[in-house]
Design the sequence.
């Protein structure tokens, strides 16, 4: 799923863009629209789009003014404008594409396909970089895990993960800096992947980093992690947990 933001000061142009997105065969979701540089800036700060359709000329500035507010641009940009002369400036900002108004449906669909390919290749690159890192670094604690959400791709050190918690087909990953990442992936997959990296499953819905255990409360039958979170221990996993604690 590609998360899309549309920023254009012409309401008709925003609606046309939304309608064309609804017709394309690439899975997309419009996460927000804005009609000015200022509201567009707030939209991009509060959301994390994969792709932005951005008008060049707006009442309070240009799309270039908006992009200049960001130190790093971690989303793809497709400019939409009635003026051909802005094309060179657009590509200085590494625009993925440049569409002229009135929008051509064929050109629009081609731009979406290009965006899908660019985003997919970026995801693959993150995974390959993590793989190369894991091959070159034999330290178990420095292995990296790739996590993909609907709008971002993370490459996180296994040692920075405190625990995983399952919620149906989703899994929440809790990090040692207090942040959490929700991914559409079964806990079983992480269990199989991370067992060699020092992770254990004391409960059907929980997977923990052994190094992040603070203590095991035997009477209450739960583990207290170093971030003070509580993880239940199933009856059949008590012996496993005891052996893990003694091995620390």
Sequence:
């Amino acid at each position: 799923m590609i998360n899309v933001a549309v920023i254009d000061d012409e309401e008709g142009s925003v609606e046309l863009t939304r309608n064309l997105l609804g017709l394309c065969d690439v899975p997309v979701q419009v996460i927000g629209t804005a009609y000015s540089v200022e509201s567009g800036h707030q939209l991009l700060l509060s959301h994390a789009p994969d792709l932005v359709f951005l008008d060049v000329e707006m009442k309070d500035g240009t799309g270039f003014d908006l992009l200049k507010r960001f130190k790093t641009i971690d989303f793809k940009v497709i400019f939409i404008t009635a003026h051909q002369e802005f094309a060179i400036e657009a590509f200085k900002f590494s625009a993925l594409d440049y569409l002229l108004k009135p929008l051509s449906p064929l050109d629009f669909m081609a731009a979406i396909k290009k965006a899908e390919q660019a985003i997919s290749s970026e995801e693959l690159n993150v995974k390959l970089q993590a793989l190369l890192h894991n091959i070159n670094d034999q330290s178990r604690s420095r292995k990296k895990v790739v996590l993909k959400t609907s709008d971002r791709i993370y490459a996180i050190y296994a040692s920075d993960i405190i625990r995983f918690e399952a919620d149906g087909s989703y899994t929440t990953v809790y990090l040692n800096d207090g942040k959490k990442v929700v991914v559409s992936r079964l806990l079983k997959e992480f269990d199989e992947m991370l067992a060699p990296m020092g992770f254990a499953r004391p409960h059907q819905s929980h997977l923990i980093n052994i190094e992040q255990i603070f203590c095991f409360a035997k009477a209450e039958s739960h583990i207290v992690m170093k971030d003070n979170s509580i993880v239940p221990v199933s009856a059949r996993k008590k012996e496993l947990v005891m052996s893990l604690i003694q091995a620390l």
